[in-house]
Amino acid sequence: MIKYSGPKKIKTAVFISGTGSNLKNLIKFSKQKKFPISIDLIISNNAKAKGLIYGNNFKIKKKVFNFSNKIIAEKKILSVLLKNKIKLICLAGFMKILSKSFVQKFDGKILNIHPSLLPKYKGLNTHARALKKNEKYSGCTVHLVNSKLDSGKIILQKKVKIYKNDNVETLSKRVLKQEHKLYPAAIKRLFN
C-alpha cells in the first residue's frame, strides 16, 4: 500500500459510468489541504456520463474509452494512467469489471465503493435484493479491489436502516448520502 507522507498529494484517477456524484464529492474533499489525494484524471466507459461535466467544471483531464474490446480499452487506460503518473484508482459507479491482469498491475491501489454491506449482495441491483430479502439494514462499503468481484479487503462500512415503506429509490438515496461520507473517510483511513 502507498503511504501518504505530507503535503504532496497522491495522484488519483476516478473511474465513472454515470452521474458522478461520488466523483464530485471526492473532488470537493481533494481540495482540502490535509486530504491525501488529488484528482488528476477522470476515466469513463460512457461518453454520455453526466459526471464528465465535473472534468470541465474543475479543469480535470477526462478520457472516455470504448469497452467493446476490453483488452484494448484496458491497455489504453494503463498507458494513460502511466503517462499521468497515477498512483491510485477510485472506482465510483464504474459499471465495467476490470480484468484480473489490470487489477494485478495496480494491486492494492484500486478502491471501490459498493452500495451494500459486503460480503452481502455483491454485483448489481443491491437495493432491490436487500428489500426482497426483508433485510433490516443495508449500507455501503469501501473496499480494495482484487480479482474477484466485490471481494477485496474491506476498509470501512456504514449501515443504513431499511424502513417498512422503503423502495429502491428511497433506500438508494439514503445509502448514497452515506457513500458521500464513507468514501473520503476510507481514503483518509487508508493513508493516515
Please supply descriptive tags for the structure shown above.
23% strand; 192 residues; 7-stranded mixed β-sheet; Rossmann fold; 6 helices; alpha/beta
| Total count of helical runs of at least 4 residues | 6
- Annotated CATH homologous superfamily of the largest domain: Formyl transferase, N-terminal domain
Structurally, the number of domains stands at 2
Strand portion: 15-25%
* Main beta sheet: 7 strands, mixed
Give the averaged pLDDT, no decimals. 95
Per the principal axes of the C-alpha atoms, what is the gross shape?
globular
Instruction: Give, in spatial order, the strands making up the sheet with the most strands.
Output: 3-2-1-4-5-6-7
Q: Name the CATH architecture of the largest domain.
A: 3-Layer(aba) Sandwich
Low-confidence stretches: none
Q: In oligomeric terms, what are we looking at?
A: single chain
State the total count of DSSP E strands: 7
Structural class: alpha/beta
Kindly identify the CATH topology of the largest domain.
Rossmann fold
Element pattern in H and E: EHEHEHEHEHEEH
The end-to-end distance, rounded to whole angstroms, is 12 Å
Please give the CATH class of the largest domain: Alpha Beta
Radius of gyration: 16 Å
Q: Can you give the helix content as a percent range?
A: 25-40%
